[in-house]
Amino acid sequence: MLNHVSKSFGKGDSQVTALRDIRFSVEEGEYVAIMGESGAGKSTLLNIIATLETATGGQIALNNQDLSKLKEKEKAAFRRQHLGFVFQNFNLLDTFNNRDNIFLPLVLNKVSHKEMEKRLEPLAKELEIEQLLDRYPYEISGGQKQRVAAARALITNPDLLLADEPTGALDSQNTKRLLVLFDRVNRQGQTILMVTHSSQAASYANRTLFIKDGIIYHELYRGDMSQKDYAKKISDSMTVLTAE
Ligand SMILES: Nc1ncnc2c1ncn2[C@@H]1O[C@H](COP(=O)(O)OP(=O)(O)OP(=O)(O)O)[C@@H](O)[C@H]1O
């Protein structure tokens, strides 16, 4: 839940206001996409929810916990325990094999090795990465890397999966595959908030928020629209948004 959230960078004449008076809630089990032109404030918004940046004003709460009140150390623990991240550039560590990359958040949460293996098995099957676990990130393709990154994000059973342009570096086939995967985990109850430039990606979500100049300018629910119609509506809204 975000209430009147604002964010400025810098001071005086060089001050940039990235977000102003942002208000919205994501319900448990929802899949929400955030769209907007470059510089609109999408990544800033995601980073604030991720506790990686601090808002200049307003309140942000996850599960009724006020994130702005957390100290630095508590923020790191909060991220590990409640959030999963998928980034455009995968952010896998080349010095660890894929299995250990996926286990990393659990190691930090001091989960037993047996429990890690138990959680990995169904996830690796679902993501079709079973054959890749002993390889290193530099030995696999971009699409495979993103599926490993998704496993790393999901293995902690996060309350919220945050994805920043997760398909930005993928070809159309791997994009589709990742979106189908996100759709499936959402149907299984995973809450997702995804920043994207792609109407096709956003059309998988239940709701799309459009950001312009740091404010939520428009919102579209999918309802019972077909995915194709919804993608068209999102793309039309983006055209209007960029023209105004
Ligand atoms: N650390 C920072 N210091 C100063 N200004 C910043 C900083 N981070 C972002 N901004 C500014 O805040 C505004 C919003 O940036 P943000 O990265 O959130 O946009 P975005 O919508 O994610 O863009 P893109 O789609 O290009 O990634 C921009 O004007 C940007 O220049």
Automatic annotation (TrEMBL):
Transmembrane segments: none annotated. Keywords: Amino-acid transport, ATP-binding, Nucleotide-binding, Transport. GO terms for molecular function: ATP binding; ATP hydrolysis activity; transmembrane transporter activity. It comes from the Bacteria. It holds the Pfam family ABC_tran. One of its GO terms (cellular component) is membrane protein complex. SUPFAM superfamilies: P-loop containing nucleoside triphosphate hydrolases. Residues 2-238 form the ABC transporter domain. InterPro entries: AAA+_ATPase (IPR003593), ABC_transporter-like_ATP-bd (IPR003439), MacB-like_ATP-bd (IPR017911), P-loop_NTPase (IPR027417). One of its GO terms (biological process) is amino acid transport. Belongs to the ABC transporter superfamily. This is ABC transporter, ATP binding protein. It comes from Ligilactobacillus ruminis (strain ATCC 27782 / RF3).
